[in-house]
UniProtKB/TrEMBL annotation:
The lineage of its organism: Bacteria, Pseudomonadati, Bdellovibrionota, Bacteriovoracia, Bacteriovoracales. Pfam families: SnoaL_2. Gene3D superfamilies: 3.10.450.50. Residues 13-117 form the SnoaL-like domain. Coiled coil: none annotated. This is SnoaL-like domain-containing protein.
Length: 137
């Protein structure tokens, strides 16, 4: 149970560090070669390796890709070396009139108290429809 609590806390620290762009904390929390996989259909979806690539290609890119982008955590479940985070993305494209939400699940793998991988599962159609709103009308 203690290891599961530690893994849950580690993921909470990870989200906090990414939101603050705290590179020192991210380097402590993540394996050097962390594998970060976003849905291929997700806006900007790709595989990134290493904290600096993740910050640049995921977090900074989302800041420029969207007028508004946030993640709201709903639950965290832990099973040994795997942490499942269920949540909701709330986004607004630059030309969209309103924000939309999309359910998502984040699956993290942990080894030796370091996050080694992230896999995202998201309803990306909702996000694309909002992102491309000016092209639809």
């Amino acid at each position: 149970m203690k290891n599961e609590t530690n893994n849950k806390d580690l993921i909470i620290q990870l989200y906090r560090a990414f939101s603050k762009r705290d590179h020192e904390a991210l380097d402590r929390i993540c394996a050097k070669d962390i594998l970060w996989t976003q849905n291929p259909g997700f806006p900007g979806g790709a595989v990134n390796i290493g904290v600096s690539n993740i910050v640049e290609n995921v977090y900074e890119a989302n800041s420029s890709r969207w007028k508004f982008f946030s993640f709201q955590r709903k639950s965290i479940s832990v099973a040994t070396d795997t942490v499942l985070v269920e949540g909701v993305y709330v986004v607004q494209g630059h030309d969209a009139k309103e924000r939309v939400s999309a359910e998502t699940a984040h699956v993290f793998k942990i080894k030796d108290n370091k996050v080694t991988s992230f896999q995202q599962y998201t309803d990306s159609k909702t996000l694309w429809d909002n992102h491309n709103q000016n092209k639809i009308s």
